[in-house]
Amino acid sequence: MPEEHRRGPLRVLAPTLGASVLLSVAYLLAPAMGTDLAAQQARAEFFAGHGWAPVDFGWYGGVGQFGYSLLTAPLGALIGMRLLGALASVAASVAFGWLLWRTGVRRPVVGALAGVLVFAANLVSGRVTFAVGLALALAALCAAAAALPYPGSPPAGRADPAPPPAGRADPAPPLAGRADPAPPLAGRADPAPPPAGRDDVALPLAGLDDAGHPRSAWRRRALVAAVFLLSALATWASPVAGLFAGLAGAAVLLTAPVGAALRAGSRVASRAGLRSWRPDGRWPQALSLCLGPVLALAPMAVLFGNGGRQPFTAESMKIHIALAVVVVLVVPRRLPAVRIAGALTVVLLLGAFYLPSPIGSNALRLPMLFTIPVLAAVAELGRVRLALLLVAVWWWQPFLVAGDLGRAGSPESRPAFHRSLVAELAGRAPGRIEVVPLRDHWESVYAAARVPLARGWERQVDTDRNALFYGDELTPQQYVAWLRANAVSYVAIAPGAVPDRYARAEAALVQQGLPELRPVWQDGTWRLYEVTGAQPLVSSPARLLRSDRGGVELGVPARGDVLVRVRWSRWLTVAGAGACLTEGPDGWTVLRVAVPGDYRLTSSLRPAAKC
Fold first, then answer.
1. N or C: which end of the chain has fewer CB atoms below 10 A?
2. Per-residue model confidence as pLDDT tens digits over 516-570
3. Are 529 and 518 in contact (CB under 8 A)?
4. Regarding beta strands 543-548 and 551-556, do their DSSP bridges make them parallel or antiparallel, or are they unpaired?
5. What are phi and psi of 138, to 5 degrees?
6. Are 276 and 42 in contact (CB under 8 A)?
7. Does the structure show a pLDDT above 50 at 96?
């Protein structure tokens, strides 16, 4: 075992834990901040009020709460989203630090402390769901690393060399004036790979204990199972984090065949090298890292997925491809898995840009967050050159969104900002309202708690259902048609607040005045407009009695079909024996009534009353 590992991980974990706890406490003491925190908070509050109900009726006419995450809303409802994020940040920091120590990188302490800053910056942006998933994904990588011997361990069956007998000197150093053995000539292939059972530098074979001896079979199986379970849980917490865990597994899977091809040199030799290559002891862990996310995401997407597309600009894609290329070029060749992961990140970014999907710009989190910690830990550069490189990477793409930090404690993030609007709407007829989205989307928390919103805060769903706001131009005719098609009764705007970047055109239209928007109320913060000619949430002769995040209640005076402008979902159910549900036109829901009366449309993981 190398000397640095005999000293144990405490020298890495102690400063890592201390710095992470300090920054997490500072985060908890600071006011609310981050563009994404509102979405996390809203989901936690929905779960606290409605439990495992799968559909949130307060956003987008009904949206699945579990398409975003299966785990974080229940955990956030239990202990609070900000505390959950702080704990996840500490856990991720410790796991990352242990991983750097365990893999024997050059500067584990520097890399781990850079990781602490990165995970704290992730908290500043409010990405609590991703923080939880990332902590679990890093824990999965730790479990995979625990199944591998320390870098530099002797091969199976061989012990460390015995020290020389007392009184005998160590072998003499090379004679003065003699040079060390010459490096291989340019163009020559690297030396042949080490024999089976030997350390493959950063990613040695599984099945050995810390001294290089075989592990017990049950422990190997337990570690493989832990890798699978943790990577699956990471996916259920955050599909993006699960994707990154799978990418790490793919990098490990490709290390051996790619290395065999590169060592072979010529094309013919490369083919021969690939044919002679066989799976080694790393494969169980690597396959678990790949299969865990895939098998976890498949049912989650099929049963609860909301679909949609995450916007991703060409400029952002190019910036982050450059970061991944830097990793490939700077990371030493003795760490092939890290270099392959950098190359796979380039592929991921290109795919996320050219193939519309819910991933989109979320793919950039991998290079944005990990480039600086990885380079700080493994780059074989002097201090000055390394510092210059890290400063250049930070200048090119900082991992901290400064605007999120600067807007901490903004008025829009406080309940008082929304109180007058909510009170005014409480005295009006129930219906759906469009609040022009604020920059940090806190209306999706405080307004949605009392009245259903036409929109909310899930970008992928918004681009799918409300594509007009993401086009080149928003016309008054398009906007009014959208309001009526979505059964919007009122439009509210806070003229003094900064809108979301995709809501600027909408804000301009509302403030300039439209004939179809009749002013009905205003105060020093809000203006409220009634939509003339608005379609009702339920079709005549039914009457809307109540509408909230948990469902829609209506009175039906006669038998027949009632169109309820709530998005159809397999999880919808209706209370009452005299009616059933079926999918209606334009993706809405039809309530088929056999017995007149009052009915409440809700959702359940065990839905009933389908026609």
1. C
2. 999 999 999 999 999 999 999 999 999 999 999 999 999 999 999 999 999 999 9
3. yes
4. antiparallel
5. -65, -35
6. no
7. yes
Confidence of residue 205 (pLDDT cuts 50, 70, 90): very low
What pLDDT was estimated at residue 176?
A: 41
Measure Cα distances from 350 to 258, 289, 360 in Å: 21, 22, 10
Q: Is 603 helix (H, G, I), strand (E, B) or coil?
A: strand
Q: Whole-prediction pTM value?
A: 0.87
> 452: buried, middle or exposed (CB in 10 Å: 19+, 13-18, 0-12)?
buried
Q: Which of 49-53, 430-434, 456-460 has the lowest mean pLDDT?
A: 430-434
Burial class (CB in 10 A: 0-12, 13-18, 19+), 389: middle
Which whole-number Å values give the CA distances from 209 to 154, 257, 289, 499, 606, in the listed order? 10, 25, 21, 57, 48
Residue with structure tokens 């075992």?
1
| Contacts (Cβ under 8 Å, ≥6 apart) of 172 | none
Omega prior to 164 cis, within 30 of 0: no
Per residue in 289-337, pLDDT tens?
Answer: 999 999 999 999 999 999 999 999 999 999 999 999 999 999 999 999 9
pLDDT tier, 402 (very low <50, low <70, confident <90, very high otherwise): confident
The β-bridge partners of 552 are: 547, 601
Q: At which residue do the structure tokens 């083919």 appear? A: 271
CA 85 to CA 98: how far, in whole Å? 20
Task: Give the 3-state secondary structure of residue 111.
Answer: helix
Best CA proximity match to 93, nearest among 22, 143, 24, 20: 20
Amino acid at 326: V
**Measured CA angle at 52 (ends 48, 58), to 5 deg:** 65
pLDDT 10s digits, 215-227: 577 888 899 999 9
pLDDT value, residue 271: 55
Query: CA neighbours within 13 Å on the CB side: how many for 222?
Result: 6
d(CA 395, CA 392): 5
Q: Which domains does the chain have, with CATH numbers?
A: 15-158+196-404 (no CATH), 411-531 (3.40.50), 543-603 (no CATH)
Distance CA 569, CA 222 (A): 39
Q: For residues 396 and 323, is the Cβ–Cβ distance under 8 A?
A: yes
Under the phi-then-psi rule, with left for phi > 0, alpha for psi from -120 to 50, and beta for the rest, what region is 8? left
Task: Compute the radius of gyration of the chain from its Cα atoms.
Answer: 29
Give pLDDT, residue 212.
45
Sequential DSSP letters for 448-516:
TTTS-BS--S-HHHHHHH-GGGGSS---HHHHHHHHHHTTEEEEEE-TTSPBPGGGHHHHHHHHH--TT
CB atoms near residue 467 (< 10 Å): 12
pLDDT at 362 over 80: yes
Nearest partner of 440 among 473, 469, 466, 414, judged by Cα:
414
